[in-house]
Automatic annotation (TrEMBL):
InterPro entries: 4Fe4S_Fe-S-bd, 4Fe4S_Fe_S_CS, Cyt_c_oxidase_cbb3_FixG, Electron_Trans/Redox, FixG_C, Ig-like_fold. Residues 262-291 form the 4Fe-4S ferredoxin-type domain. The lineage of its organism: Bacteria, Pseudomonadati, Bacteroidota, Cytophagia, Cytophagales. Keywords: 4Fe-4S, Electron transport, Iron, Iron-sulfur, Membrane, Metal-binding, Transmembrane, Transmembrane helix, Transport. This is 4Fe-4S ferredoxin-type domain-containing protein. The chain crosses the membrane at residues 47-72, 92-118, 166-184, 204-222, 340-359. PANTHER family: FERREDOXIN-TYPE PROTEIN NAPH. The keyword Transmembrane applies. It comes from the Bacteria. NCBIfam families: ccoG_rdxA_fixG.
Amino acid sequence: MSIPNYIPQGQKPAAKGQQLKANSQQLKADSKLHPQKPKGKWHNRRVVFSVVVLSILFITPFVKIGGQPILLLNVLERKFIIFGLFIGPQDYWLFGVMMLTFMVMIVLFTVVFGRLWCGWACPQTVFMEMVFRKIEYAIEGDAGKQKLLDKAPWTADKLFKKALKYSIFLAVSFVIANLLLAYIVGVDELSRIVHEPLEDHIPLFSGIVAFTAIFYFNFAWLREKACTVVCPYGRLQSVLIDRNTITVAYDHERGEMRGKLHKNEIRTNGDCIDCFQCVAVCPTGIDIRNGNQMECVNCTACIDACDAIMEKIDFKKGLIRYTSENEIERKSGKSFGPRVWRYAAVLLLLCGGLVGMIATRSDTQTSFLRTPGSRYIENKDNTVSNLYTFKIFNKTNRTITPTIRLNAPEGTLLFAGSPDLTMQPAGMAEGTVFVTIPKTSLPNRKTVIKMSVYQGDTFLEDFETTFMAPQD
Ligand code: SF4
Ligand code: SF4
């Protein structure tokens, strides 16, 4: 690689301010960014990691536990399966606590590692940098060729390249839309949509078309602006990261005063030779030397670019590297501030609570209440009856046929009609029932009675309700 902007001896480099101004003007003039193709150790690592991320993304919808998908995010029917745990409309509190735990986890992770997620695992970055950008480089060439092609008149060659690129973009967007739908409705439902007549699945097919258009717009036009303008996570950075956060950072202590490298000079400036290679490869078009910026997605491209320059001019690598502001300034080892320990404590509490909630969660949720306006009935056989209305919610993703049992005190249940209590997944059964208990078991006006829900001999849930009786 040649060193761009290499200034021969005797020639004066442009003043720093002028150079930065020119650079930012050039970036503004290019409404579409043309980052140079990244290459180097960190990029290779990201390629491997992206293959893992993409494999997980595409394989997960097909993985099932006990016939159920391991992950389903059916926002349309408000049903979620997270690592095999079914969360229906009755478990929103559980879903809420899960989301809260996830958010605290993200906050903690961001405080410690900055935007590591953005650069390495976020599907937006993985698809943009490792799929769409690679297709673009393969068809149109590196940044310089892309700029020339954009400026060139519409020849047959340009038309062919642009048509080919955008057709492939559209096809990949269609695949991603199907992938998203597989997470929402499951692969079985998606397969039905594909194999059955289109007119039977107009709403879902419209969803695929709409998501294809959204993904195409995102990856073909919006691109890095999705990270720098749209994504709320990026905007949170300024409040989350601190001087101990490990991010991709420029070592200004070592790099400044930056200045061009001249042949045979005895260098008095810092190690940054102002070659702008770190800017040229940046997919969000920023200059990492201006410090931590909201637009930086920690993609590591500038680390590789700068390391290549350092190697070429025989300087120590790592002028741009994963480090923290404190590490640069104090040359101290990595340390965590008190914020990290506080977030870790909150996360630990939430995880503990979540595990407890999941462990004690029942398969059904029953509401069993005395029918409003009804009184107790005194029977001739020295028993008392109360009339109840009940609702049983199925909190699982399987069919349940429940039975209700009176545990204490002893008594009988007489259902109105012969209700079929069979509940579909996430379904509900309801009815009315007379509970009859011998007077001798009812010493008080109000007695708490204990009941259970079973499926066959399998216990599902315990609950209590009150029983009214005359007071002698
Ligand atoms: S500054 Fe560096 S790490 Fe940040 S987005 Fe640009 S190239 Fe990637
Ligand atoms: S930080 Fe590195 S890549 Fe960027 S201008 Fe300085 S020497 Fe060049």
